[in-house]
Amino acid sequence: MAYFTTGDGLSLYYEDHGDGPAVLCLAGLTRNSRDFDLLAPHLPDIRLIRMDYRGRGQSDHDPDHGNYNVMREAQDVVELLDHLELERVVTLGTSRGGLIAMALAATHRDRLAGVVLNDVGPVLAEDGLARILDYVGRRPTAKTHEQAAETMMIVLGQDFPGISRDVWLAQSRAQYRETGDGLELRYDPHLRDALIAQAETGETPDLWPLFDALEPLPVGVIRGANSDILDSMTVVQMEARHPGLITATVPDRGHVPFLDEPESLDVITRVIDAAT
Predict the structure, then answer these.
(1) Contacts of 121 (CB under 8 A, 6+ apart)
(2) Which of 1, 30, 239, 256: disulfide with 119, CB 3.0–4.6 Å?
(3) Are the C-beta atoms of residues 76 and 96 closer than 8 Å to each other?
(4) Is the peptide bond before 256 cis (omega within 30 degrees of 0)?
């Protein structure tokens, strides 16, 4: 277990394993380093680095929930790279992690060797955002990991057909902590307050300039065929603005692909190869 201290004094957890080109994995909004457990065995010759954002996983919660925002989390990434004495890395960003990667392209592009965006882009579909806001910060009604896995199979099964119960059980264990009083979130519930406060400003940020900042880099986009966050027309627009974009749609996956799918692995390895 390894930690580093941010400029504002929080202790953030990270993992750093393997040798080879460095790939920094950035998880989804409420997720943590476990987001990449299914991917890791497929990249044996890679130095795989993962971090838990502030307020997630094994990292400190921030007493000011206003700091749960993409720009502050991007700064935390830069501070981790400085801590590891890494000049540049390929960055693999799942959902929120992809937004952070795009923010880094606009502010610290010299630290990026390449970027893979997992089911996220500069346009976020409103239905998907509403679904996310509905569950963030709320404890599950399930009392055990087994019950939560059964619920996931029912609720998510339409978008993720054929996924085994063992995978859903692993997802539950990654997202929740089992206690005598049921399941607890593995992130700060005040993340919900941060999202609501940001939404109440009424401002919809234009993310296209952040995506355009990726243009000089090798970039890949992975999309779940059943995604409610990244639609196919947005990917077409992304391809038009970044002619070298490497893209793939993963069948039988919603938001987000697990990254062990052949289509996902093809995009990831092609970006790594182009970046190194």
Answers:
(1) 98, 207, 211, 221, 230, 234, 235, 238
(2) 256
(3) no
(4) yes
